[in-house]
Amino acid sequence: RQSLVSAYATPLAVPPPPGATSTFAARQHHGDQTSSLLPRLLHRAAQVDLLLVDLQDERNGILVSDDHTTTRTPETMAEPGLEAHGGLAVRHVAFGTDEHHTLWSAAAQRFVADLRRLGLLDRTLVLALPWAEHTEDGRPTTPSFGADSARRNDEFARYHDVL
Question: Where do the segments described as Disordered lie (predicted)?
């Protein structure tokens, strides 16, 4: 649950969001705030057989303040006013917008360079599964976090193209 934008942002320590309903959510929030992706890859690169990259946690965008970027998660969305994240004034940069794509693409380039440097690039698989547009019984799927599957599939395509 870490946007690539947040993964390459300046680390920041803030308390877990009040919307964190589990130790998993609190742990993911901490990893996001401390930009833990690269340190974890550095620590475990030799043990990795296959690295799966799933961009689904990008779908809610990011929260940007003057000194930090964090992933906008269901936990941060659950609390009214939490988008003043940890007391910091932030703004939401929505997934799929040109601004988000530009920020994300720059982070993705750094990520790919780090994967190559760590010898992980040829052991990395990007999951690019389309969102289902119909249920098993043929009915249209319902929107998720304000977007239908056709829109999300279009948005994710250009992100997958970058990787």
Answer: 1-22
Tokens found for residue 134: 């119909």
What distance in Å separates the CA atoms of residue 110 and residue 120, rounded to the nearest whole number? Answer: 13
Residue at token pair 């947040």: 6
Residue 51's DSSP bridge partners are: 124
- pLDDT score for 99: 96
Give me the mean pLDDT over the 123-136 stretch: 93
Please report, as a single letter, which amino acid is at residue 114.
Answer: D
In the chain, what are the domain boundaries?
4-162
Distance (Å) of CA 22 to CA 14, 25, 76: 17, 5, 13
End-to-end CA distance of the chain: 18
The alpha-carbon radius of gyration of the chain (Å, integer) is 16
When the pLDDT of each residue in the chain is averaged and rounded to a whole number, the result is 85
Of the candidates 30, 29, 103, the residue with the CA atom closest to the CA atom of residue 61: 103
pTM, rounded to two decimals:
0.83
